[in-house]
Amino acid sequence: MERLRRAVAEIAYARDHAKLSPLQRSLVPVLSLASAFYRFALSLRSYLYGSGVFSKHRLPVPVISVGNLTWGGNGKTPMVELLAGLFADSGFPPLILTRGYAGGDEARMLQRHLLEKSVKIGVGADRAATAATFIGKYGCIDPRMTICSKSGFPNQRFRSHSQTEGIGAVILDDGMQHWRLWRDLDIVMVNGLQPWGNGQLLPLGPLREPLTALQRADITVVHNADLVPGQNLKRIEHTIREVKDSIPIFYTRMAPAYFFEVGNIASLIPLEALSGNIVLCVSAIGSATAFVKGVENLGAIYIDRIDFSDHHIFKREDIQMIKMRLKELEGQFGMEPIIIITEKDHDRDPEILKHFSPYKVWAVCAQLQFVSREGCSKDQFKNLLAELLKVKLSGRTCNVE
CA 97 to CA 301: how far, in whole Å? Predict the structure, then answer.
């Protein structure tokens, strides 16, 4: 199954089908047919919601969706974490709604990072029902007291007892294609390293919707911008502007901060500790290339990599295969390699990662940072977020619809 997933992923990002393997070329007709059915299903769903056959559930607090148009590696979860921190620090505790893929690895990572902040995390496929449960339990804050206040966002610091307990906003993780909940703001993340693939819909390509869906976006964010040549960024910008000329575009990157050792999450290992070592990067995330490129800048002598499909759950046979690669590297360089993984991979199943002994396994902790480009900065992002929400939330009250 992993081999098939990898073959499909390579097809999705291939520009020339003539360069594909015989197995991959044999899959193209089947994937094309499946992609046509997928397009029909998208159109039908759009019609049913647009005509009112399916209704959208509107929550009594502002809902900010963080989504994308392609599978994985777009920086959605780090952006969700950043937004949650902004709301929490402003005195308006947010509720994060996530589906909980692969047993909830992203939810667990968010829980660790936001442990000391007034943030609630709801996990479940029916996110409208999950939101209703949390709001019913904790209550909500009148949106006119939050974003619509004169003091703005995120400078509002007033906290009452009800604000400490109530929910001030909902952040919808991976919400671009989730139509059941009404959103007040749509933020669309774009992976700068692999923005649109071959331009085809799933499963022939990586697109979950046609690029015209960008018309629904209020803000776009090009992620991994530090790893993308300026000329490529301009091409991405041009594609976005062709769909929606007026949309604001921001730029982000993941900045490594430190490592921690698997089995000792409290350990803080400085980035400099990787210098002079042999490294094997192991990951099951949406954009392994961005992860590896980030590690490459930390001074290792040699870096090898093993990539699995996004949300892959490591199995015993995977551990054995990785150990074989480690022994090969040890024999080649005469020193024990260090395994570097992402936090997401750690939180998916930290126990199985202990089976790599005697080799060290370090998880790299990275933070989302804004990249200044053409006058766009983090402060401008926060100010724009406040302005857009003020306009969209004027007149709203804390009454469930």
Answer: 41
